[in-house]
Design a protein that fits this description.
single chain; 132 residues; alpha/beta; Rossmann fold; 6 helices; 6 strands; 22% strand
Length: 132
């Protein structure tokens, strides 16, 4: 069973992601955060397998959250799920330790594919983001 925390500052988006993930028998959402600092606190408290993280949050950005989570919790992998596909965000996320990055406009099955790839020890960076 893969455990996840969803960090997204828009509650309706969080609820939609949670609904998608809860339909999957191998995935369990153990927490939700509406800010970067709340995400860091929940990861420290709950130790999920994956933090599904928005890039732009109200307090600190996803790159900084990723850096802090990776420094404090070697058990939790980070997947950035953002509307921003700018290469600087993708590269910054990778350098901070994110194991995946995909756009919110991606089909739901791609999000599930990314989660399962990272859960299995791999990485998942959407092809549209990694092309030169």
């Amino acid at each position: 069973m893969t455990t996840l925390i969803i960090a997204e500052d828009h509650i309706n988006v969080r609820r939609s992601i949670r609904a998608l993930l809860e339909d999957e028998s191998d995935l369990t959402v153990v927490g939700e955060a509406g800010s970067g600092m709340e995400a860091i606190r929940l990861v420290d408290m709950l130790h999920p397998d994956i933090l599904l993280l928005d890039m732009i949050l109200g307090d600190i950005n996803g790159i900084e959250v990723t850096r802090r989570v990776r420094n404090e919790s070697s058990r939790t992998d980070v997947i950035i799920f953002s509307m921003y596909g700018d290469q600087s965000y993708v590269l910054g996320s990778r350098q901070a330790g994110a194991k995946g990055y995909l756009l919110k406009k991606s089909p739901p099955n791609e999000l599930l594919k990314a989660i399962r790839a990272v859960s299995a020890g791999g990485q998942y960076f959407a092809a549209t983001l990694t092309s030169d």
